[in-house]
Amino acid sequence: MEYVTLSNQVVMPKLGFGVFQISKEICEECVLNAIQVGYRHIDTAQSYFNEEEVGQSISKCGIPREELFITTKVWIDNYGYEKTLSSVKKSLEKLKLDYLDLVLLHQPFGDYYGAYRALQDLYKEGKIRAIGVSNFSPDRLADIAGFNEIPPHVNQVEVNPLHQQVAAQENMIKRNVQIQAWAPFGEGKCNMFENPTLKEIGAKYQKSVAQVILRWLMQRNVVALAKSTHIERMKENIEIFDFELSNDEMKKISELDTNTSLFFNHQTPETVDYFLSIIEERKGKI
């Protein structure tokens, strides 16, 4: 495993296991399998509806708590100072933990200023070891970093070979914020697993396209969250520390960048409207 050191000296495993879209019914087993094959960084969220199952797996895995790095994210409808305080405490209860390693604000909408102040206070209390945001564009990241006592330690954004976030990462480096990738495989969109460039590089090292993508992210110093419900794939995804891409191969992958999200642009009014509908749909369920 490789690691990054955040601006507050907290050490985070560079490769994590994400549980987005893993159902409650199989989440506990999946997380236990991930820990068994070597993952120590687990990423969940209030809006994934599986914090309790992640908590069960943490309780049963037999790994000392200090060897695990556990992240959750505050949902938009729990923003605002008091609601965020309450929701993080509820997340701690669901996860059966005394502290969280990282808590992020899930989306850059609503009263994220009040929510962030709550994270700062929980951080000072020792309930959270690091705090951050998710899906914050460079301007919003600059804003929240510049006008708060404790700048975010992490910003989790979409990063994959077709949407590489180069300028966003440069902005984060400037502000001592660690970039973290969700959807590193783009959920297979645009036939990513059949991309000729990635397949050619993989063939050279006898590695899969997924392994090439994760290795590329490691070498860009991007923390990556890989998800799978199959233990064989979990093993494959973590077996990326025995090879290294050349500068030429890194350059070839850089040329795949379209600078366009495969999902949605957080800076459009349509995306705001979309999340308003999601908030309404999930009201009272988180």
From TrEMBL:
Site positions for Lowers pKa of active site Tyr: 73
InterPro entries: AKR (IPR020471), Aldo/ket_reductase_CS (IPR018170), NAD(P)_OxRdtase_dom_sf (IPR036812), NADP_OxRdtase_dom (IPR023210)
Residues at the catalytic site: 48 (proton donor)
Protein family per UniProt: Belongs to the aldo/keto reductase family.
Matches recorded under PROSITE patterns: ALDOKETO_REDUCTASE_1 (PS00798), ALDOKETO_REDUCTASE_2 (PS00062), ALDOKETO_REDUCTASE_3 (PS00063)
CDD domains per the UniProt record, alphabetical: AKR_AKR5F1
Organism of this sequence: Anaerorhabdus furcosa
Entry superkingdom: Bacteria
Chain positions recorded as substrate binding sites: 106
Entry keyword set: NADP, Oxidoreductase
GO molecular function, one term: oxidoreductase activity, acting on the CH-OH group of donors, NAD or NADP as acceptor
Protein name according to UniProt: Aldo/keto reductase
Gene3D superfamilies: NADP-dependent oxidoreductase domain (3.20.20.100)
Residue ranges annotated for the NADP-dependent oxidoreductase domain, each copy included: 21-257
